[in-house]
UniProtKB/TrEMBL annotation:
<feature type="transmembrane region" description="Helical">
    <location>
        <begin position="12"/>
        <end position="33"/>
    </location>
</feature>
<feature type="transmembrane region" description="Helical">
    <location>
        <begin position="99"/>
        <end position="117"/>
    </location>
</feature>
<feature type="transmembrane region" description="Helical">
    <location>
        <begin position="283"/>
        <end position="308"/>
    </location>
</feature>
<feature type="transmembrane region" description="Helical">
    <location>
        <begin position="164"/>
        <end position="185"/>
    </location>
</feature>
<keyword id="KW-1133">Transmembrane helix</keyword>
<feature type="transmembrane region" description="Helical">
    <location>
        <begin position="255"/>
        <end position="277"/>
    </location>
</feature>
<feature type="transmembrane region" description="Helical">
    <location>
        <begin position="137"/>
        <end position="158"/>
    </location>
</feature>
<keyword id="KW-0812">Transmembrane</keyword>
<feature type="transmembrane region" description="Helical">
    <location>
        <begin position="197"/>
        <end position="218"/>
    </location>
</feature>
<feature type="transmembrane region" description="Helical">
    <location>
        <begin position="230"/>
        <end position="248"/>
    </location>
</feature>
<protein>
    <recommendedName>
        <fullName>EamA-like transporter family protein</fullName>
    </recommendedName>
</protein>
<keyword id="KW-0472">Membrane</keyword>
<feature type="transmembrane region" description="Helical">
    <location>
        <begin position="39"/>
        <end position="61"/>
    </location>
</feature>
<feature type="transmembrane region" description="Helical">
    <location>
        <begin position="73"/>
        <end position="93"/>
    </location>
</feature>
Length: 317
């Protein structure tokens, strides 16, 4: 793909691949999560794929493993943020409407990136022009509106009362913030010679034992899972959960975190479409209003980001 496209173009393709598959996972795994322990899901999917990835790296490019080990701070940071982000997200998508959960998760990525730039995090970057800044501001307002509508019981789905709604909103926001910091650590490792496949395999070293502990403690215990559900978890999970993570790893090595963040902010559009097709969960007028505002902001930010990229490319040429 990179031989046909420029590195930036290939990065955009990988970013959109990540967003579309993540959106499908948010919706189509929703009903499965109601029957299967989310910690079991993570353990099966990421345990299997991590073992395969680490085996491939050990055979093909073992030097990347030693490079990763020589950067303990970045390796630990990637693991802590990945584990926290995934656990928070897998719980959030069960508690509130998938479209809103994914919107809050996605919107927090560019907002956290901009906040990190103000904290002088080297891998982060702020809005590059007024159009992009205005779009991100609108995205922030829409997240407040959708979070408030969910807490007040005006969204399409909440698995419980007001406390559950607030918890779901908080978990979705936390997951987006943590995954953003994970991207920073991934970018740092990539710049120091640790490739996407190695990062994919090493990213879950903390998540897997935490998931095993959550499973043993029954933190998300459901009724006994049918064998067919577990087969579905492994088969579909590799495509809808594991491969998107590999896609974003490829994108990290090709485009900036803010570019990934801007594209990720378009994800709720795909979630809404998939949620409508699946038909399991309804949506409310509050959801539609929040999403309309969100889409307006994300489109403005995307256009602004695209203009900034073109200007920088012309200056470089």
């Amino acid at each position: 793909m990179q031989k046909i496209l420029t590195p930036h173009g290939a990065g955009l393709v990988w970013s959109f691949t990540f967003v579309i598959l993540e959106a499908a996972q948010a919706v189509f795994f929703g009903s499965l999560f109601q029957r299967v322990d989310s910690f079991l899901v993570g353990l099966i999917v990421f345990g299997t794929t991590s073992a395969i990835a680490l085996g491939w790296v050990a055979l093909q490019v073992p030097s990347q493993l030693s490079r990763a080990i020589s950067q303990p701070a970045s390796l630990l940071g990637m693991n802590v943020t990945a584990a926290g982000g995934w656990i928070a997200y897998l719980l959030a998508v069960q508690l509130i409407e998938p479209t809103i959960a994914f919107a809050i998760f996605s919107g927090m990525v560019p907002l956290t990136t901009i906040a990190a730039a103000r904290l002088r995090v080297l891998e982060a970057s702020g809005s590059r022009n007024k159009l992009e800044a205005s779009g991100n501001l609108i995205v922030g307002v829409s997240l407040l509106l959708m979070g408030g509508a969910t807490a007040l019981g005006l969204s399409g789905f909440v698995r419980g009362g007001g406390a559950v709604a607030v918890a779901g909103v908080g978990l979705a926001a936390l997951s987006g913030a943590l995954i953003t910091w994970m991207l920073f650590y991934c970018r740092r490792l990539d710049s120091n010679g640790v490739g996407p496949m190695a990062q994919f395999g090493l990213r879950f070293l903390l998540y897997l034992p935490l998931s095993a502990g959550g499973l043993l403690l029954g933190l998300d215990e459901k009724e006994e899972s049918a064998a067919t559900d577990l087969v579905a978890v492994l088969a579909v999970g590799v495509v809808l959960m594991a491969f998107p993570i590999y896609a974003v790893q490829r994108a990290v090595s090709l485009v900036t975190p803010l570019t990934i963040a801007t594209i990720t902010a378009l994800g709720p559009l795909f979630v809404f479409v998939f949620q409508t097709i699946e038909g399991r969960i309804g949506y409310s007028y509050a959801t539609l209003v929040g999403l309309a505002i969100y889409f307006a902001g994300s489109i403005l930010a995307t256009i602004g980001g695209g203009l900034a990229t073109r200007i920088s490319e012309r200056q470089a040429a």
